[in-house]
Task: inverse folding
């Protein structure tokens, strides 16, 4: 069993959220599953945009809210960006090929709660919470060794 740990980071503005996404993208050599939790409007997609843009160089990163999955490929990086907000039943997860992605891609999942029981232990979970105005906190959970790299 991997030793799990938590790290709390203050995000004073949108730029800090994007910067955290960029920092997290540097961990893909050690971990390929990133879960992003938080209420509506807390910056989940903004964090994912920073991550994907830094990793692939693609600037136009969209929200996968309606298609539930958008993919990005650049060089050796293949990223599957899921938004499971609209998923209502656990069994529906098998219709979006998430199992294949977990084994072959870098996976970012917004609203991962419905699939957490099928996800491997070696993942990083980021929980975003509003503090005040545009500031937020990010609680990052995962392998202790990985969190020391952030």
Result:
């Amino acid at each position: 069993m991997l030793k799990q740990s938590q790290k709390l980071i203050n995000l004073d503005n949108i730029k800090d959220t994007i910067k955290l996404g960029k920092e997290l993208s540097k961990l893909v050599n050690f971990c390929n599953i990133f879960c992003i939790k938080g209420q509506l409007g807390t910056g989940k997609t903004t964090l994912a945009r920073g991550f994907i843009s830094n990793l692939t160089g693609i600037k136009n990163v969209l929200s996968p809210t309606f298609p539930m999955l958008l993919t990005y490929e650049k060089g050796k990086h293949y990223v599957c960006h899921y938004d499971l907000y609209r998923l209502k039943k656990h069994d529906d997860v098998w219709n979006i090929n998430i199992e294949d992605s977990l084994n072959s891609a870098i996976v970012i999942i917004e609203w991962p709660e419905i699939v957490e029981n099928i996800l491997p232990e070696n993942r990083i979970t980021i929980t975003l919470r509003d503090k005040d105005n545009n500031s937020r906190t990010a609680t990052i959970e995962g392998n202790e060794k990985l969190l020391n790299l952030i």
Notes: The two ends are 21 Å apart (CA to CA). The chain has one domain: 4-147. The first helix runs from residue 14 to 25.
